[in-house]
Design brief:
CATH architecture of the largest domain: 3-Layer(aba) Sandwich
Shape: globular
Oligomer: single chain
Number of strands: 19
Number of domains: 2
CATH topology of the largest domain: Rossmann fold
CATH superfamily of the largest domain: Alpha/Beta hydrolase fold, catalytic domain
CATH class of the largest domain: Alpha Beta
């Protein structure tokens, strides 16, 4: 019913669309003198906005007929290298003999046509041999051509890489970043000789557990059954793909528009002002952007549902549980990013990306453990959103120069860039990936401080196995747990019951005091200074200090003189036997000491030890 309602709305808007289009053409015609008046311009601007809101935009073309290399204009022609039921491989053939790096751009399969990357291709054309995946609209593919799911898309990438050869550099923009990483991982596990020299992952959902956005929250807050019942519909009978179950492109467009509704409303208000003031350049830029942005394509239901399940809900790739089913042999193959060793890696993210927030693409470095550190690079484009990392001024002036430098670092046997081009857009070397600065833990700390709306509360623990040759990649995330150290537990407020229990416990701990008996006096005898080892010990010099305390556990303590170290007490074997032994020993010692003390007091004179006599030290 979704498709039927959408088509019905479009048909009902036809009576409004035709008059407004005629009004726009009348008041914006240069032959009409009213087009020069403010009132005429306002009427023409209003009519154009209403007409565009009720219009449905078809697939645009790339329109890249030429480029400039070293200040000279060079013709460009689109060539179809391979044609599959759901995708074509296009090459922008330049009329030049330059030997430039070969680049494959994997366009996103997320509702927009690959022409959304027109600016990406245009900036790379002067110094690269550019290829791009041209995905087809699912409603235009007949049912006889079969199904198309996540495994088929990976097979397409695998086949295209085999056609282009081992010296190819692959760029994945947005959604296909996880597919490209998985495809290269399978090629590395199979030791395929056509592995790419480098891969550039730009704003893609490699690990959606690191941070959250409206896209990830929507995908994770609904069940697969909900998606099947609410966003999947069959193509109407008047399209070539009649009967095919698809995820309609107009639903994806409405989701993108709702994420930044204020921005789109403000853009159309400015467009109205530009039309009234007669600013044709800015008005034309607005038309070009929204003609591209509002043209959408359908996705097959199996591809859409499998992407939601594997990438956003199960996170199979970062968990190490992803498997690829070969469509030709029906064989299940483990996807192991830790097997990638040959391919260099560059990840690019935008600071203000609201589709794939910071950290989701950087997670690829944590998965590709076997790539040498000298082959891992990362770039965070400040003040840039999702669209800005592959289109616009920041892409041309800051992101593209880093990609160009990175590609030529690992593909040296190519023609140099003309100096005139380097003066316009100088080369910039990307930053080497640093775990302490760009790793998952550092990114999550940055999100918590700077972008709390994208911070996801969970515990992040790095996974490692005992097998150093094949460690498990990635991190383990425990949900609903703050990674920060938990604060100390606060004591509960005291109540009558707790106070009574505490008082009884303290009473039990206090030692008993014998009130009927008098405390025994302490006997202090002078100690002699230590003698040399050659001297002999005087038997009368052995002095014992005896003290009696009120504690039952410590009735008497004996300390040896400095010349004779005290003996260590034996550890009690059992509680009852130890107590009985200590009581008998203490009684014997106290009786002997009392006898000695009474004898000395009766004599009245205390013999001093003779220091001249020798004793043992």
């Amino acid at each position: 019913m979704l498709y039927q309602l959408y088509e019905l709305r479009h048909m009902l808007a036809a009576p409004v669309r035709f008059p407004t289009e005629m009004t726009r053409a009348f008041f914006q015609s240069p032959l009409n003198p009213l087009s020069l008046t403010p009132a005429g311009r306002a009427i023409g601007a209003s009519a154009e906005i209403v007409s565009r809101l009720s219009q449905r935009f078809s697939r645009p073309s790339f329109g890249l007929n030429s480029t400039r290399i070293g200040g000279k204009k060079v013709a460009v022609k689109e060539n179809i290298i391979a044609d599959r039921p759901f995708c074509r491989l296009l090459n922008f053939k330049r009329n030049t003999k330059r030997n430039d790096p070969r680049v494959l751009i994997v366009a996103p399969l997320s509702g927009h046509f690959p022409t959304l990357l027109r600016g990406t291709v245009e900036a790379l054309l002067p110094h690269h041999d550019v290829y791009i995946t041209d995905w087809k609209d699912a409603r235009e593919v007949p049912l006889s051509d079969g199904r198309f799911n996540l495994d088929d898309s990976m097979a397409y990438i695998h086949d295209f890489m085999g056609m282009l050869g081992p010296e190819t550099h692959i760029i994945a923009v947005c959604q296909p970043a996880s597919l490209v990483l998985a495809s290269i991982a399978v090629m590395a596990s199979e030791r395929d000789p056509n592995q790419p020299a480098s891969m550039i992952l730009m704003g893609g959902p490699i690990d959606t557990r690191v941070s959250k956005t409206a896209v990830t929250e929507t995908a994770q807050s609904h069940t697969m059954r909900w998606f099947e019942d609410n966003v999947i519909d069959a193509v109407p009978s008047y399209y070539p793909g009649a009967g095919r179950r698809v995820y309609p492109g107009f639903l994806q467009l409405s989701g993108f528009m709702s994420m930044n509704m204020d921005t789109h409303v403000d853009s159309h208000m400015k467009f109205f002002q530009h039309l009234v003031t007669g600013d044709g350049e800015l008005s034309e830029k607005h038309r070009a952007f929204y003609n591209e942005y509002l043209s959408v394509m359908d996705l097959t239901s199996e591809f859409f549902l499998q992407t939601i399940s594997e990438v956003f809900q199960k996170q199979s790739l970062p968990r190490g549980k992803m498997k690829w089913r070969n469509p030709q042999t029906d064989e299940l193959i483990d996807v192991r990013p830790q097997d990638i060793r040959h391919t260099a890696l560059l990840t690019i993210e935008g600071e203000l990306d609201d589709v794939s927030a910071r950290g989701q693409t950087t997670a690829a470095h944590e998965l590709c453990l076997s790539i040498p550190q000298r082959k891992q690079y990362h770039h965070l484009q400040m003040g840039c959103g999702h669209y800005g990392i592959f289109n616009g001024s920041r892409w041309r002036g800051e992101v593209m120069p880093r990609i160009r430098n990175f590609i030529r670092t690992f593909d040296e046997d190519k023609d140099p860039i003309p100096e005139s081009d380097l003066k316009k857009i100088p080369d910039i070397a990307p930053e080497r990936f640093d775990h302490d600065k760009h790793g998952i833990v550092a990114v999550r700390r940055w999100l918590k401080e700077n972008q709390p709306e994208n911070y996801k509360k969970c515990k992040c623990i790095q996974q490692r196995t005992k097998n150093k040759a094949h460690p498990d990649p990635g991190f383990y995330f425990a949900p609903d747990d703050d990674p920060a150290p938990s604060p100390k537990k606060q004591k509960k407020p005291a109540t009558a019951k707790t106070e009574a229990i505490a008082s009884t416990e303290t009473k039990k701990k206090k030692p008993r005091i014998n009130k009927g008996r008098k405390p025994k006096a302490k006997v202090h005898l002078p100690l002699l200074e230590p003698l040399e080892e050659t001297q002999k010990a005087d038997p009368r010099a052995n002095v014992i200090e005896v003290s009696f305390t009120k504690n039952k556990d410590k009735k008497s303590t004996t300390t040896a003189s400095k010349d004779k170290p005290a003996k260590k007490k034996d550890k009690p074997q059992t509680k009852t036997k130890a107590k009985a032994k200590t009581k008998t020993k203490e009684k014997k010692k106290t009786s002997k000491l009392k006898a000695k003390a009474s004898a000395k007091t009766k004599s009245g004179t205390k013999k001093k030890p003779d220091p001249s006599k020798k004793r043992k030290a």
